[in-house]
User: Fold these one by one.
Assistant:
Number 1:
Amino acid sequence: MFTPVALAFAVVAATASVYAQTLPDNCARTYVVQPGDFCDGISAAQNASTFQLANVNKFIDPLCDNLQPGETLCLGITGQDCTVTTVVAEGSSCVDIANTAGTSLDTLLANNPNVDENCSNIYPGEVLCTAKEVIVGST
Ligand SMILES: *[C@@H]1O[C@H](CO)[C@@H](O)[C@H](O)[C@H]1NC(C)=O
Ligand SMILES: *[C@@H]1O[C@H](CO)[C@@H](O)[C@H](O)[C@H]1NC(C)=O
């Protein structure tokens, strides 16, 4: 059981490192992956939302299990780089998060296109952009 999983992981990782060499030209800031990093941990420490990290680095798979220590990620695109973030706490709602951050629910939803209109899909540890103005584009 261990071997096929390890083999599959190696194939995915090899693919990822090819794409990881190509950073966007308009990358505002970068981060070098450290051993043991996981996406939401990087997002929380670097103030780059869960959506933004995934959207800018499309080679990262949905489970975030293909990060390679030493590879460089882009944390945000110039002009669309939200650096004001909040880590979702257990039991908190989008309204709570928006109020605490001093922003509106509409701005919160616009800045986090991965969050559904009812805010029913956020999870503890997710990192949201909580800027007071709309920063994040959808592409
Ligand atoms: C992230 O934001 C917090 C709060 O503003 C700040 O204290 C911290 O230095 C920021 N970290 C980075 C890596 O920008
Ligand atoms: C949001 O809530 C409304 C009303 O309950 C429902 O009709 C809609 O399907 C919900 N949307 C999502 C994305 O959950």
Note: The radius of gyration is 16 Å.
Number 2:
Amino acid sequence: MANRSLCVYLHGRYWWTVLLPICVASGLYLFVLHHYQSLSYRDPTSFFFDHSRAYERHYSTRRITESQNFLSASSDAPTPRRLPWEDPILCVGIVTVRRREDQYVGLTLASLLDGLNQSERNNIYINLFFADTDPLQHPAFAEKWAETLPDRLLTYSRDHPEFTKLQAWERDGYYQNKSVNDYKHLMNACYETGAKYIAMIEDDTLAVKGWLGPTLQALNVVEQRTSGHEWIYLRLFYTESLLGWNSEEWPQYLFWSFVVWASSTAAMIAARKWLKAPNLLASSIVWTTMWPIPSGVHVMNKYGCCSQGLIFPHFIIRRVLDLVNSAEDLFVDMMLENIADSEGLSRFAVVPSILQHIGATSSKGYGFDFSATSLWNFRFEEYSPSGI
Ligand SMILES: *[C@@H]1O[C@H](CO)[C@@H](O)[C@H](O)[C@H]1NC(C)=O
Ligand SMILES: *[C@@H]1O[C@H](CO)[C@@H](O)[C@H](O)[C@H]1NC(C)=O
């Protein structure tokens, strides 16, 4: 009965009022689908995540080449020119230990320096710390750039009160104990530069060209938002895979989703006068649930993973140094999370990520390599060839 009446209807004068809207609606739907597929295939929280394409290195391949070129011409790089009473704005601490295979620390350093002009270079102070108790074991230690590019090259002095303990940790594979100690040693060295902010960057990361400007802007945003409240760090790298960002920022998310949904629905209701296409409503709902995390500074108190790049305000360093304790059975990143939780300190992140993780072999030793390759920021690969 229903079929017959539909056929009768279709054979009637107004068949096109049904078919045309269906064609238009399907076309639009496919367009929207395609659009979101191309937008979200790198977003692991999205329905459209495409594993085979998501890990393609687009921007980072380019950035690695640029960094290699920078290293081979490193003698032309601007050297910092600061007056004795001028404190740098940002101290960048990079700790490196010899890895089993490739060493990435040169690329990390070069990507941070390539593209900076003289005044930007003056604003940052780079501490490069070779943390092997015998730094000559580290293949990069003898490279010329290791001496010329950083403001200061640090190693453990044989007079260090715990030198023999450090050697024992190294020899016996107590990686975790040693890495906590290395982190504190470097953080303290950066603290002593008097810089307003301290960036702790791991030796297997890659910075986007032009990173400093947006980073300082993001720090300003954090200062404005926290006026009067303490905060612990601004995150320069996060992995989207672990990001339940909706659950942290759901009020805004819900609000904007609603605004978009309501306006598109209203538009469609208006359009329905001449387009009988209720499935447009369905596409508007699909649409508003696919939003990737917007650019800018976000609170990321949970789910922001890993310590590839964190910037701490100077005022929090003494407390962090007191609380990060090598007697606790944890890696530094987990300790920092615990400190932030117990002290009620906010954590922030810049979106998109300023750093990418490039290491495939973990400096944490065997058994950590799987997690090393999956530490990845998908959005980083979408930067334009010229950087930020
Ligand atoms: C260096 O670059 C920054 C950021 O692009 C710019 O604001 C500044 O004016 C530049 N300084 C010089 C001396 O070129
Ligand atoms: C390494 O640290 C753990 C706690 O994280 C501690 O129990 C252990 O004794 C330390 N090992 C050495 C050799 O110091």
Note: The chain is about 45% helix and 15% strand.
